[in-house]
Amino acid sequence: MAKLFKPIYFLNILLIILGCSSSDDKDCTKTIIVQPEYEIIGPQGTTLIPEIKQEIPCDSPEPDPVKPIIEGNVLTNFSYDVLSFEYTPDTGNNTSRIQFEIKLNNPNNFIVRGTPILTINSDNIQFSTSYSADATEACHEIQANSSCVLVYNKETPIDPNLGTPNKFELVSVKYVL
Q: Do the beta carbons of residue 42 and residue 51 sit within 8 Å?
């Protein structure tokens, strides 16, 4: 009887193990963050970029952490010359005005394509942004051993709730490839 009991016991254990595997393992998902939430603070106000999530199977590998763009592919052999930089907090027309010309120099033996990123100090708050979207000359490409002048001139209505900063100074310029 003991000889008959052992195979039946092991057979029952095997049936329980096989019977307990469920399709839930196949349907298992986890939520990952594809893009973290962040704010862009600029002279026109604050823009909130929402977090983007995605459901993936549980056995999928975790994605690589997202790096901020400013830490991305910054052109290292790069210089700039500020030809002019003027901020007018109140033009008299209920607007503020930012205008500048910055010569971006590419001393490399190859063409670079990217976006100039300016770091601004506005009332002791520093932020980095690109003014290329509204620039007269955006400098998204600089020829080898050449330069491009980033030209920006824009008036923005003064928001009575926010007011305007007293100080608006250029800290640095980077060229992100």
A: no
